[in-house]
């Protein structure tokens, strides 16, 4: 029995540093002429239950507020409501909601997600249709559906860097509006409030209103060559100074790279080191003070230490993103690295990795791992019956029963009460109370346009420490002012 045939991708998946970047190979399915959603194109199904759909039409849309893109393409089609005997449209009752449409992305864990959707259909009789887009295309399609009020999707899937835009713009509705009795499950990891929003402060907060639930729990993990550590008599580090010392010992022993960091997209990795030194991007944000924290002793020390890590790694660190870092680890030339939980899968793939079975996984040195989590929420404006059906799915997906299965089929879990022999999942559990949030600001894309190139140039040696700090401080001041945040 075969799984669904996937829609051919238009190119490489691009994403935030917490999202595993993969190349999508073309598939054999041929393109079919666009058709209305009510007469959708079936590209196959898992056990005949999960329908994979291609976006059926596109048009130019106005730029989405807060996004870096100038123009966006949108899928315009939406489910045609039913009609009553008088010819007027009517929405289905709760008992008539037999299908929910979930927007999702081409990710390394898509096949696992398909299995979970299939399991939900078996348990409830509700078909879960996963409408799959490239990473950036997912943001585009959901943002336009929200702005147009098309109700094209029953569930929005949000990467961590997008949640501020979705919450602030009211594109997803508070969970308590669907279920007034909603309470956060104490065994569901909060990821530093990734599912909550403080509308007054315009930031995520552990005290904020719940809007979404974490469904795929990528965080920073320390990954190291267990076999080489044993040979060299090294201890698993708990501080960044110990990481650097271990890396230098590896270089002295003839290992090609003592460490690898992602200097092409450095903001995510740098954040973990910054937080461990008690620094922050905006130290006063919870109090409404959006003065950037780049011109501080903590930020300066973090940059210096980040460069020290780069210096024990490959040349031209500013050219290394997650795909390159993963490949270097797979090839066996690196002693240790900071990577996200999802990278464990390619590292342990015996068909493509020379280090499968040789990697150790540990809590991040400094004990401030940053999350790169995916969340799911209920789009605003859905009819009550569809909103309830969506809520039922996302609360089931993040339940203990479902997350236990999610672990078994290769997903990255978001709960502390699952059991698994996968060490990267145990690291998530052990790190649950240490996790710091990634960039969730409404202005995150514009912020990265400042921080990524500045830090990259500093690592490359083409910009001094003082110049880097000045560029980031001034650049972020401009970004927050233009975004309407007070200082």
TrEMBL record:
It holds the Pfam family SBP_bac_1. Gene3D superfamilies: Periplasmic binding protein-like II. InterPro entries: Bact_solute-bd_prot1, SBP. This is Extracellular solute-binding protein. The lineage of its organism: Bacteria, Bacillati, Actinomycetota, Actinomycetes, Micrococcales.
